[in-house]
């Protein structure tokens, strides 16, 4: 039942997106942008849909394992993985309902606003990170057990990134290996990722927090949506009679309700004191 309701909501949102696209093209004589279309894709519904699918798969596998006389350990582990992921996604979805209460949605708003920037930043950072992983595996792998395989090398560098086991890693650089390169490799990785990459990552999240703060804790919309909201507000008298303005008026009402229920300015002010 939950899966059917979520699919229906996603389908109706796409119907509304098509109506908005037609209305936007007739109103402003231009196509809506991709960021405008993304406003009609609710990530919470997608999260719920994936969680429901995992529950169905995990439950089916669990029942299959229980009915077997000699179930394998792998099948049992796979069913537990699906059920565990579904539980994780289910509890993550609770954040959506906490967002309706005053003072609780600052985390959700900040993460939702920062997520696109975080993905772009991580794309560049992970590219450089995997470059260090491959380099360390090829050069230091024959001489250091902490760089023996790609997975172990990645685990070692991630530990160094969090400031763990630094001295032991330096001490394990064997004299028979390329000692100068080993020192340069570790020092450059630590300086670059700890002092630069992590600091920039925190700055990206803090920039989103400051943006939400300047907007008084309200949800931010794309430029095209804001433009259409202003146009719909100025033509509020024609809502009952103008069929072309109806599709987006529904979004306008929902957006207004979201702004009224997500006033976090007292919380934001309290965090600065």
Automatic annotation (TrEMBL):
Molecular function, one GO term: NAADP-sensitive calcium-release channel activity
Which residue range or ranges hold the Ion transport domain? 40-215
| Cell location | Membrane
Alphabetical keyword list: Membrane, Transmembrane, Transmembrane helix
Main subcellular location of this protein, as a coarse class: membrane
Keyword Mitochondrion appears in the UniProt entry: no
Q: Fetch the InterPro entries from UniProt.
A: Ion_trans_dom (IPR005821), Mucolipin (IPR039031)
Transmembrane residue ranges: 44-64, 76-98, 118-140, 184-206
The membrane topology noted for this protein in its Swiss-Prot or TrEMBL record is: Multi-pass membrane protein
Q: Gene3D superfamilies under this entry?
A: 1.10.287.70
Taxonomically, the superkingdom here is: Eukaryota
Please give an example of a GO cellular component term from this record.
plasma membrane
Keyword field contains Transmembrane: yes
PANTHER family hit by this protein: MUCOLIPIN (PTHR12127), SD02261P (PTHR12127:SF7)
Name it. Ion transport domain-containing protein
The organism named in the record is: Oikopleura dioica
């Amino acid at each position: 039942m939950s899966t059917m309701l979520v699919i229906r909501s996603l389908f109706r949102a796409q119907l509304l997106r098509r109506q908005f696209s037609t209305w936007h093209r007739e109103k402003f004589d231009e196509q809506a942008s991709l960021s405008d279309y993304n406003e009609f894709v609710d990530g919470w519904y997608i999260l719920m849909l994936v969680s429901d699918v995992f529950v169905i798969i995990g439950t089916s596998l669990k029942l299959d394992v229980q009915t077997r006389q000699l179930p394998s350990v792998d099948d049992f582990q796979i069913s537990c993985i699906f059920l565990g992921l579904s539980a994780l996604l289910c509890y993550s979805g609770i954040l959506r309902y906490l967002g309706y209460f005053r003072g609780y949605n600052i985390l959700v708003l900040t993460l939702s606003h920062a997520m696109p920037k975080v993905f772009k930043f991580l794309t560049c950072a992970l590219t450089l990170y995997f470059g260090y992983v491959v380099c360390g595996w090829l050069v230091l792998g024959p001489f250091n057990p902490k760089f023996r395989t790609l997975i172990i090398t990645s685990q070692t560098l991630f530990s160094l990134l969090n400031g763990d086991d630094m001295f032991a890693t330096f001490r394990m650089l064997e004299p028979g290996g390329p000692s100068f390169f080993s020192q340069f490799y570790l020092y450059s990785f630590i300086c670059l990722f700890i002092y630069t990459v992590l600091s920039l990552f925190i700055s990206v999240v803090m920039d989103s927090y400051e943006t939400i703060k300047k907007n008084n804790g309200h949800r931010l919309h794309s430029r095209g949506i804001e433009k259409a909201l202003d146009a719909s507000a100025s033509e509020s008298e024609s809502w009952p009679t103008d069929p072309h303005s109806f599709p987006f008026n529904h979004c306008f009402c929902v957006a207004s309700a979201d702004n009224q229920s997500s006033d976090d300015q007292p919380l934001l002010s309290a965090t600065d004191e």
